[in-house]
Amino acid sequence: MIEKGKGRYVEDLRIIQLCEADLNFVLHEIWGHRLIWYAMRHRGLDPAQYALPGQTCNNAVLNKTPFLDLCRQTLSPGILTDYDATAAFDRVLAGLSIVTCQRVGIPRIAGNLMFKLLKEMSFYLITGFGQSTERFNNNQMGLQGQGVLQGSSSTCPIYILISDLYLSNYRKLGTGVAFYHLITKNRVHDTSVQFVDDKSKFLNPVGAGHHNDPNTDVGSALLPLASQNSQIWADSIWISGGSLNINKCFYYAFIPAVNFKSKSIDCLDLPMPDQINARCRHDIPSKESKDFLPPSVGER
């Protein structure tokens, strides 16, 4: 159990489940190496996921640069939204994670091994006072989302394969960003980038089908779509037990405009209509729906 900057109380600590070295090696060989490489080569994982061999978190972040630069050059309004999941690895449904791995080629015997580990592996608690005399496993807890052994080599690959379903669903249902090449008129379209559980989505008028129509009120046109995209993403991760961390979700809305005095392009804040009230109804199932339209950069 390690601190996350929230304090030393038990409920604020992050639980890391340690496995024996030989078991961790087997999990890495099957899930962290063979399964991921097989899924990349033969199953065509969604290109928005950058937590894959040969990629780094910097690659995902750098994708924001051309989006912002193209918006500046074309004077196109845009919205960039960042999402973060709450305890992503600890909320995954064990049964669904095994089915997802089998979808991309894991043998049934390996899937049964992982399911048995997730449900029946026993844990002890070791503190400065020694090792606990009692032990527990997920079968005793009676919870639906027990996680996928955060701290093992199989945790990240399993979450990547589950998030591939989210990204594919969002690519079909969500509204993204699009630009037209000035010479060839080819259309380039994208929706989002993600590194493990941290996701950023893009939105501009062309992607929304408005084609920079001067008669369109960009604020009232884009912000409802951004709210709808947020709801689609919240619903998608909720299906597997996930939830958005509202305190770490933000949007950046802007309108590039030419400043003739300074001969530069300024970025103006996109006004937010009063009627926009995006919901993330699955964030706290036991309470009322919680508003989700994070503050812009200037309001943080």
Please render the helix and strand layout as text:
Layout: H1 21-43, H2 57-62, H3 64-74, E1 78-83, H4 94-103, H5 108-120, E2 126-127, E3 130-131, H6 138-141, H7 155-173, E4 177-180, E5 187-190, E6 192-195, E7 198-203, H8 218-238, E8 250-259, E9 264-269, E10 279-280, E11 290-291
Antiparallel strand pairs: 1-7, 1-8, 2-3, 4-5, 6-7, 8-9, 10-11
Helix pairs in contact: 1-7, 4-5, 4-7, 7-8
How would you describe what is shown here?
The protein is of the alpha+beta class and 300 residues long. It has one domain. It is built from eight helices and eleven strands. α7 runs antiparallel to α8 (218-238). The chain is elongated. Mean pLDDT is 76; it is low at 272-300.
In short:
The chain is of the alpha+beta class and 300 residues long. Helix content is 36%, strand content 16%. The protein is elongated.
Anisotropy-based shape: elongated
Number of helices: 8
The stretches of 5 or more residues where confidence is low (pLDDT under 50) are 272-300
Mean pLDDT: 76
Secondary structure: number of strands: 11
Largest sheet: 5 strands, antiparallel
How are strands sequenced across the largest beta sheet?
A: 6-7-1-8-9
Distance between the termini: 30 Å
Share in β-strands: 15-25%
> Which radius of gyration do the C-alpha atoms yield?
22 Å
The quaternary organization reads as single chain
Look at the helices and sheets and give the structural class.
alpha+beta
Q: SSE string, helix = H, strand = E? A: HHHEHHEEHHEEEEHEEEE
Q: How many domain units?
A: 1
Helical residues, percent: 25-40%
